[in-house]
Amino acid sequence: MTWKISKSFDFCYGHRVWSQELNPDFSIDPCLKCRHLHGHQGKVILHLESTKLINGMVTDFAHLNWFKVFLDDVLDHRFIIDINDPLFETLLPHYKKDELIEHKEGYKTPDLTKIKNEQNHIIEMYESYVIVDFVPTSENLSTWFMNIAEEKMKELDVKVSQIEFAETPKSTSNVYA
Question: What's the pTM value of the predicted model, to 2 decimals?
Fold first, then answer.
């Protein structure tokens, strides 16, 4: 037997898909809207599975609170930008790519001590950036979430079988283990 559970999490974020290209034979609107700075109300569903139950459960749903904390503390109301985005230097003019703080979950943030004497609105702008090394498409974000969840849940010997990510209620990507 295999048991499966899932839990969903919501967060708001902004991004830009600078690599977007549209095929005019398939797109109603030729505008490359995702190349613009824009935001979403995202929803991530973690799907877990196990062939054994511990205390009658795949795992306790409370064991997924760490993911909610990650989303709230790292991504909620933040702007995800690819370090290779041609707008990187425009959006983060005070920083070179090697001056960022690396985090174990695979993202970087500006070192705010470098701009500690700037006005508050400048500091607030920089603290809103989450820098990744991939174009922040729905598919790439799903993969990133999968890698983070797999790394954490292996401590409990629980398999992450799928990540479902909806950047809008009508647009969803999935990645499977």
Answer: 0.94
Q: Strand 100-103 to strand 107-110: parallel, antiparallel, or no bridges (unpaired)?
A: antiparallel
CATH number of the CATH domain containing 161: 3.30.479.10
Residues 5 and 48: beta-carbon distance below 8 Å: yes
Distance (Å, whole) CA 44 – CA 145: 8
Strand (E) or helix (H) holding 12: strand 3-15
* pLDDT band at residue 52 under the 50/70/90 scheme: very high
Q: Which domain holds residue 19?
A: 3-176
As for how many domains the chain has, the answer is 1
> Quick check: 164 and 45 in contact, CB under 8 A?
yes
CA angle (162, 164, 165) in 5-degree steps: 145
Looking at residue 88, what is its pLDDT? 97
Query: Tens digits of per-residue pLDDT, 102-121?
Result: 999 999 999 999 999 999 99
State the greatest distance between any 2 C-alpha atoms of the chain, in Å, as a whole number: 59
What is the tally of helices (H) and strands (E) in the chain? 4, 8
| Residue 156, CA distances (Å) to 77, 151, 152, 159, 160 in order | 30, 10, 8, 9, 11
